[in-house]
Amino acid sequence: MEIIIMENAAEIGEAAGKLFVKAIQKKPDIVLGLATGASPVPTYQYISAACQKGEVSLRDVRTYNLDEYVGLPRNDKNSYYTFMHEQLFNHTDIQEQNVHFLDGNATDVEAECRSYDDQLDKAHIDIQLLGIGRNGHIGFNEPSICFTKGAFKVKLTESTIDANSKYFDENPMPHYALTMGIGSIMKAKKIVMIATGSAKADAMAAMIKGEVTPVCPASILQFHPNVVVYLDKAAAKLL
Ligand code: GLP
Protein backbone atom coordinates (compact mmCIF):
# COMPACT_ATOMS: atom_id res chain seq x y z
CA MET A 1 0.00 0.00 0.00
CA GLU A 2 1.38 3.38 -0.96
CA ILE A 3 0.38 5.97 1.65
CA ILE A 4 0.54 9.63 0.59
CA ILE A 5 -0.14 12.20 3.31
CA MET A 6 -0.97 15.67 2.01
CA GLU A 7 -1.86 19.02 3.51
CA ASN A 8 -5.54 19.20 2.64
CA ALA A 9 -8.42 17.98 0.45
CA ALA A 10 -7.61 20.44 -2.35
CA GLU A 11 -4.05 19.13 -2.69
CA ILE A 12 -5.35 15.56 -2.72
CA GLY A 13 -7.91 16.44 -5.38
CA GLU A 14 -5.16 17.78 -7.60
CA ALA A 15 -2.85 14.80 -7.07
CA ALA A 16 -5.56 12.19 -7.52
CA GLY A 17 -7.07 14.17 -10.40
CA LYS A 18 -3.71 14.18 -12.18
CA LEU A 19 -3.40 10.44 -11.65
CA PHE A 20 -6.77 9.86 -13.34
CA VAL A 21 -6.15 12.33 -16.17
CA LYS A 22 -2.79 10.72 -16.98
CA ALA A 23 -4.34 7.26 -16.86
CA ILE A 24 -7.14 8.32 -19.25
CA GLN A 25 -4.66 9.99 -21.61
CA LYS A 26 -2.65 6.77 -21.68
CA LYS A 27 -5.69 4.51 -22.14
CA PRO A 28 -8.64 6.50 -23.58
CA ASP A 29 -11.03 3.53 -23.22
CA ILE A 30 -10.08 2.96 -19.58
CA VAL A 31 -12.65 1.36 -17.25
CA LEU A 32 -13.11 3.28 -14.00
CA GLY A 33 -14.87 2.28 -10.81
CA LEU A 34 -16.24 5.43 -9.21
CA ALA A 35 -17.27 6.52 -5.73
CA THR A 36 -19.61 9.09 -4.27
CA GLY A 37 -19.43 11.14 -1.07
CA ALA A 38 -17.54 14.35 -0.36
CA SER A 39 -14.05 12.81 -0.56
CA PRO A 40 -13.78 12.42 -4.35
CA VAL A 41 -15.38 15.78 -5.21
CA PRO A 42 -12.10 17.77 -5.62
CA THR A 43 -10.77 14.94 -7.80
CA TYR A 44 -13.89 15.10 -9.97
CA GLN A 45 -13.47 18.89 -10.20
CA TYR A 46 -9.89 18.43 -11.42
CA ILE A 47 -10.93 15.87 -14.05
CA SER A 48 -13.86 18.06 -15.17
CA ALA A 49 -11.59 21.10 -15.55
CA ALA A 50 -9.01 19.09 -17.52
CA CYS A 51 -11.79 17.87 -19.81
CA GLN A 52 -13.15 21.38 -20.35
CA LYS A 53 -9.65 22.66 -21.17
CA GLY A 54 -9.39 19.93 -23.79
CA GLU A 55 -6.51 18.19 -21.98
CA VAL A 56 -8.38 14.90 -21.76
CA SER A 57 -11.45 13.29 -23.28
CA LEU A 58 -13.81 10.89 -21.52
CA ARG A 59 -15.59 9.96 -24.75
CA ASP A 60 -14.47 6.34 -24.64
CA VAL A 61 -14.17 5.97 -20.86
CA ARG A 62 -16.52 3.49 -19.21
CA THR A 63 -17.53 3.85 -15.57
CA TYR A 64 -19.13 1.61 -12.96
CA ASN A 65 -20.32 3.19 -9.75
CA LEU A 66 -19.92 1.45 -6.44
CA ASP A 67 -23.38 1.77 -5.03
CA GLU A 68 -26.86 3.28 -5.11
CA TYR A 69 -29.61 3.84 -2.57
CA VAL A 70 -32.64 1.57 -2.68
CA GLY A 71 -35.96 3.21 -3.45
CA LEU A 72 -34.85 6.65 -4.62
CA PRO A 73 -36.00 7.61 -8.12
CA ARG A 74 -32.94 7.65 -10.40
CA ASN A 75 -33.20 11.42 -10.86
CA ASP A 76 -33.81 12.19 -7.19
CA LYS A 77 -31.45 14.93 -6.05
CA ASN A 78 -29.93 12.54 -3.51
CA SER A 79 -29.41 9.55 -5.79
CA TYR A 80 -25.84 8.64 -6.57
CA TYR A 81 -26.83 8.73 -10.25
CA THR A 82 -27.63 12.44 -9.86
CA PHE A 83 -24.53 13.04 -7.74
CA MET A 84 -22.22 11.62 -10.40
CA HIS A 85 -23.84 13.64 -13.16
CA GLU A 86 -23.66 16.87 -11.16
CA GLN A 87 -20.13 16.35 -9.88
CA LEU A 88 -18.48 14.83 -12.95
CA PHE A 89 -20.35 13.48 -15.95
CA ASN A 90 -22.21 16.68 -16.94
CA HIS A 91 -18.90 18.55 -17.14
CA THR A 92 -17.25 16.04 -19.46
CA ASP A 93 -17.82 14.45 -22.84
CA ILE A 94 -18.51 11.00 -21.39
CA GLN A 95 -21.23 9.10 -23.25
CA GLU A 96 -24.29 8.23 -21.20
CA GLN A 97 -24.30 4.65 -22.49
CA ASN A 98 -20.84 4.22 -20.94
CA VAL A 99 -21.90 5.03 -17.39
CA HIS A 100 -23.20 2.20 -15.23
CA PHE A 101 -25.00 2.05 -11.92
CA LEU A 102 -26.72 -0.55 -9.85
CA ASP A 103 -30.47 0.04 -10.15
CA GLY A 104 -31.75 0.77 -6.67
CA ASN A 105 -35.32 0.36 -7.95
CA ALA A 106 -34.89 -3.08 -9.49
CA THR A 107 -37.84 -5.33 -8.72
CA ASP A 108 -35.62 -8.40 -8.92
CA VAL A 109 -32.70 -7.36 -6.72
CA GLU A 110 -30.90 -10.69 -7.06
CA ALA A 111 -31.00 -10.55 -10.87
CA GLU A 112 -29.84 -6.93 -10.83
CA CYS A 113 -26.87 -7.76 -8.59
CA ARG A 114 -25.82 -10.83 -10.65
CA SER A 115 -26.10 -8.80 -13.85
CA TYR A 116 -23.87 -6.04 -12.39
CA ASP A 117 -21.33 -8.66 -11.27
CA ASP A 118 -21.28 -10.13 -14.79
CA GLN A 119 -20.76 -6.70 -16.32
CA LEU A 120 -17.92 -5.99 -13.89
CA ASP A 121 -16.26 -9.33 -14.63
CA LYS A 122 -16.34 -8.59 -18.35
CA ALA A 123 -15.31 -4.94 -18.03
CA HIS A 124 -12.37 -5.52 -15.70
CA ILE A 125 -11.94 -2.22 -13.86
CA ASP A 126 -8.57 -0.54 -14.41
CA ILE A 127 -8.77 1.93 -11.53
CA GLN A 128 -11.26 1.83 -8.67
CA LEU A 129 -11.72 5.07 -6.73
CA LEU A 130 -12.79 4.66 -3.11
CA GLY A 131 -13.77 6.80 -0.16
CA ILE A 132 -14.18 5.25 3.26
CA GLY A 133 -16.93 5.37 5.86
CA ARG A 134 -16.18 6.30 9.47
CA ASN A 135 -16.75 2.65 10.31
CA GLY A 136 -14.37 1.42 7.62
CA HIS A 137 -17.00 0.69 4.97
CA ILE A 138 -16.10 0.79 1.29
CA GLY A 139 -18.85 1.23 -1.25
CA PHE A 140 -21.68 0.31 1.11
CA ASN A 141 -19.95 -2.82 2.42
CA GLU A 142 -20.70 -2.26 6.08
CA PRO A 143 -18.82 -3.97 8.95
CA SER A 144 -19.92 -7.58 8.96
CA ILE A 145 -19.01 -11.12 9.95
CA CYS A 146 -17.70 -11.97 6.46
CA PHE A 147 -16.35 -10.27 3.36
CA THR A 148 -18.82 -10.09 0.49
CA LYS A 149 -18.07 -11.37 -2.99
CA GLY A 150 -20.59 -9.88 -5.39
CA ALA A 151 -23.14 -7.10 -5.34
CA PHE A 152 -25.92 -7.27 -2.78
CA LYS A 153 -28.62 -5.33 -0.94
CA VAL A 154 -27.34 -3.99 2.35
CA LYS A 155 -29.03 -2.57 5.43
CA LEU A 156 -27.11 0.57 6.30
CA THR A 157 -25.67 0.95 9.79
CA GLU A 158 -26.52 3.71 12.26
CA SER A 159 -23.03 5.17 11.70
CA THR A 160 -23.62 5.50 7.96
CA ILE A 161 -27.15 6.84 8.35
CA ASP A 162 -25.85 9.36 10.85
CA ALA A 163 -23.02 10.44 8.51
CA ASN A 164 -25.10 10.69 5.32
CA SER A 165 -28.51 11.89 6.55
CA LYS A 166 -27.26 15.50 6.51
CA TYR A 167 -27.72 15.40 2.71
CA PHE A 168 -31.41 14.51 3.02
CA ASP A 169 -33.27 17.66 3.97
CA GLU A 170 -36.74 16.85 2.56
CA ASN A 171 -37.22 13.09 2.59
CA PRO A 172 -35.75 10.63 5.08
CA MET A 173 -32.58 8.86 4.00
CA PRO A 174 -33.09 5.33 2.65
CA HIS A 175 -31.93 2.63 5.07
CA TYR A 176 -31.01 0.19 2.31
CA ALA A 177 -28.64 0.34 -0.65
CA LEU A 178 -27.21 -1.88 -3.37
CA THR A 179 -23.46 -2.10 -3.39
CA MET A 180 -20.67 -3.68 -5.38
CA GLY A 181 -19.16 -6.53 -3.36
CA ILE A 182 -15.69 -6.56 -1.83
CA GLY A 183 -14.70 -9.35 -4.25
CA SER A 184 -15.44 -7.11 -7.25
CA ILE A 185 -13.62 -4.14 -5.70
CA MET A 186 -10.57 -6.32 -5.09
CA LYS A 187 -10.51 -7.39 -8.75
CA ALA A 188 -9.72 -3.83 -9.90
CA LYS A 189 -6.18 -3.59 -11.25
CA LYS A 190 -5.48 -0.49 -9.18
CA ILE A 191 -7.26 1.10 -6.23
CA VAL A 192 -7.09 4.77 -5.28
CA MET A 193 -8.51 5.68 -1.88
CA ILE A 194 -9.14 9.19 -0.59
CA ALA A 195 -9.76 9.97 3.09
CA THR A 196 -9.86 13.43 4.60
CA GLY A 197 -10.75 14.82 8.01
CA SER A 198 -10.35 13.57 11.57
CA ALA A 199 -13.65 11.62 11.42
CA LYS A 200 -11.76 9.14 9.20
CA ALA A 201 -8.71 8.76 11.48
CA ASP A 202 -9.93 5.63 13.29
CA ALA A 203 -10.94 3.97 10.02
CA MET A 204 -7.56 4.82 8.47
CA ALA A 205 -5.65 3.32 11.39
CA ALA A 206 -7.79 0.16 11.31
CA MET A 207 -7.47 -0.17 7.55
CA ILE A 208 -3.71 0.35 7.37
CA LYS A 209 -2.41 -0.96 10.71
CA GLY A 210 -5.17 -3.20 12.01
CA GLU A 211 -5.84 -6.86 11.36
CA VAL A 212 -7.60 -7.81 8.14
CA THR A 213 -11.16 -8.37 9.27
CA PRO A 214 -14.67 -7.82 7.87
CA VAL A 215 -15.30 -5.72 10.97
CA CYS A 216 -13.27 -3.09 9.07
CA PRO A 217 -14.14 -3.94 5.44
CA ALA A 218 -11.44 -1.60 4.06
CA SER A 219 -8.74 -3.65 5.83
CA ILE A 220 -9.00 -6.19 2.99
CA LEU A 221 -7.10 -3.65 0.87
CA GLN A 222 -3.93 -4.77 2.70
CA PHE A 223 -4.15 -7.83 0.43
CA HIS A 224 -4.43 -5.85 -2.81
CA PRO A 225 -1.15 -5.48 -4.72
CA ASN A 226 -1.72 -1.97 -6.10
CA VAL A 227 -3.34 0.51 -3.70
CA VAL A 228 -2.61 4.22 -3.35
CA VAL A 229 -4.10 5.98 -0.33
CA TYR A 230 -4.29 9.75 -0.30
CA LEU A 231 -5.03 11.18 3.11
CA ASP A 232 -4.74 14.54 4.78
CA LYS A 233 -2.99 15.13 8.10
CA ALA A 234 -6.22 14.93 10.10
CA ALA A 235 -7.13 11.52 8.66
CA ALA A 236 -3.52 10.36 9.19
CA LYS A 237 -3.24 11.45 12.81
CA LEU A 238 -3.42 7.91 14.28
CA LEU A 239 -0.93 6.32 11.88
C1 GLP B 1 -20.96 6.76 1.38
C2 GLP B 1 -20.54 6.04 0.11
C3 GLP B 1 -19.11 5.59 0.18
C4 GLP B 1 -18.23 6.74 0.64
C5 GLP B 1 -18.65 7.16 2.02
C6 GLP B 1 -17.81 8.28 2.60
O1 GLP B 1 -21.33 5.91 2.38
N1 GLP B 1 -21.36 4.92 -0.16
O2 GLP B 1 -18.70 5.12 -1.08
O3 GLP B 1 -16.89 6.36 0.64
O4 GLP B 1 -19.99 7.63 1.93
O5 GLP B 1 -18.32 9.51 2.19
P1 GLP B 1 -17.61 10.89 2.44
O6 GLP B 1 -16.51 10.96 1.45
O7 GLP B 1 -18.67 11.91 2.19
O8 GLP B 1 -17.12 10.90 3.84
Distance between the termini: 13 Å
- Number of helical segments with 4 or more residues: 7
Shape: globular
Please report the total strand number as a whole number: 10
The chain-level structural class is alpha/beta
Largest sheet report = 7 strands, parallel
Please state the CA-atom Rg, rounded to the nearest Å.
17 Å
Oligomer: single chain
Residue windows where pLDDT falls under 50 for at least 5 positions? none
The small-molecule ligands in this entry are: 2-amino-2-deoxy-6-O-phosphono-alpha-D-glucopyranose
- Overall mean pLDDT: 97
Range of helix content: 25-40%
Instruction: Name the beta content range.
Output: 15-25%
Order of helices and strands: EHEHEEHEHEEHEHEHE
Strands of the biggest beta sheet: in what spatial order?
Answer: 1-10-9-6-2-3-5
Notable traits:
239 residues; alpha/beta; 18% strand
Overall description:
With 239 residues, the protein is α/β, with parallel strands linked by helices. The protein is 31% helix and 18% strand. The chain has helices at 9-26, 41-52, 80-87, 109-123, 158-164, 182-186, 201-209, and strands at residues 2-6, 31-34, 62-65, 67-69, 99-100, 127-130, 152-155, 176-179, 190-195, 227-232. The strands form two sheets. The protein has a seven-stranded parallel sheet, with helices on one face. A three-stranded antiparallel sheet has the order 4-8-7, covered by helices on one side. Helix 1 (9-26) crosses helix 2. It is globular, with a radius of gyration of 17 Å. The model has no long low-confidence stretch (mean pLDDT 97). The site of 2-amino-2-deoxy-6-O-phosphono-alpha-D-glucopyranose has 14 residues, from helix 5.
